[in-house]
């Protein structure tokens, strides 16, 4: 796969305060890449750099193989979609009227509206006024607006923040489908569960620096303590080591027909983040 984003040794300051410090990472075409970090860690600033909304003091940022500044060309900008806490929706207009405005902006046929509303599960909601929608529905309309022009690269800044579990799962399903269809996704979040469910790789960002990065599963295995968790049929849990004594205990539990399941005892992404940064993700 080719690299669709490449960031090398980037430094970004605000009023003399370091926001991003020697930031380096790359994203392959077709990946879903998660940036994990607490509020104020530099996640939103990174998205602004990657979408040419902010400059930087030193380093290099390339998107689609070109300097990020090329995204200021409207033709190049149409290759990306950006979802932030600013919905870009007109509250007094209907869903249909909002999406027609963006169809006009992108030079798209209005027939695309029915397609994109189907993609986000909002078929039949075209005539509803945006201000009357639930937070979850409004976020799906915002996502519809973001993917209306079928961008190659999608930037999502905390896309499920403050949503209920049902709305969150709907957004996750949409993002997985988009990714399966070839869309590259850059996602910022402080939700470790979200990152593990939908991201191919993640990076831990703290105080403007990447502390650790890799596939979620690999990170969990690499930071496990090598113990094994036994779940018994009576609800009890037992931890055993990967050694002769542990093997003997497993054999005994199996022989007693009390074993319900066996699991490696791996930390969550939140646990790992706390270990390497000394901070919680929330």
TrEMBL record:
GO molecular function terms noted in the UniProt entry: ATP binding; ATP hydrolysis activity
InterPro entries: AAA+_ATPase, ABC_transporter-like_ATP-bd, ABC_transporter-like_CS, ABC_transporter_ATP-binding, P-loop_NTPase
Organism from which the protein derives: Alkalicoccus urumqiensis
Signal peptide: none
Xref: PROSITE patterns: ABC_TRANSPORTER_1, ABC_TRANSPORTER_2
Keywords: ATP-binding, Nucleotide-binding, Transport
Pfam families with a match to the protein in the record: ABC_tran
Gene3D superfamilies per the UniProt record, alphabetical: P-loop containing nucleotide triphosphate hydrolases
Protein name: Bacitracin ABC transporter ATP-binding protein
Keyword Glycosyltransferase: no
ABC transporter domain ranges (all copies): 5-232
């Amino acid at each position: 796969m080719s690299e669709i984003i490449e960031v090398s040794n980037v430094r970004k300051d605000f009023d003399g305060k370091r926001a991003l410090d020697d930031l380096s990472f790359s994203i392959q075409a077709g990946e879903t890449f998660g940036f994990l970090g607490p509020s104020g860690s530099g996640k939103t600033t990174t998205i602004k750099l990657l979408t040419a909304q902010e400059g930087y003091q030193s380093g290099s940022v390339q998107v689609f193989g070109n300097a990020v500044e090329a995204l200021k060309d409207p033709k190049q900008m149409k290759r990306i979609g950006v979802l932030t806490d600013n919905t870009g929706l007109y509250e007094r207009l209907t869903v249909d009227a909002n999406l027609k405005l963006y169809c006009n902006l992108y030079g798209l046929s209005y027939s695309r509206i029915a397609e994109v509303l189907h993609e986000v599960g909002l078929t039949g909601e075209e005539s509803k006024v945006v201000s009357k929608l639930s937070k979850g529905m409004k976020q799906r309309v915002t996502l519809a607006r973001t993917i209306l022009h079928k961008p190659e690269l999608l930037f999502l800044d905390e896309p499920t923040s403050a949503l209920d579990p049902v709305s969150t799962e709907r957004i996750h399903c949409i993002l997985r489908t988009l990714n399966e269809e070839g869309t590259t996704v850059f996602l910022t979040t402080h939700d470790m569960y979200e990152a593990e469910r939908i991201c191919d790789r993640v990076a831990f960002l703290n105080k403007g620096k990447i502390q650790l990065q890799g596939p979620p599963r690999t990170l969990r295995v690499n930071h496990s303590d090598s113990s094994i968790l036994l779940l018994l049929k009576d609800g009890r849990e037992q931890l055993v080591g990967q050694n002769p004594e542990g093997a003997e205990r497993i054999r005994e539990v199996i022989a007693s027909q009390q074993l319900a399941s066996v699991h490696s005892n791996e930390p969550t992404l939140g646990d790992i983040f706390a270990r390497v940064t000394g901070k919680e993700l929330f």
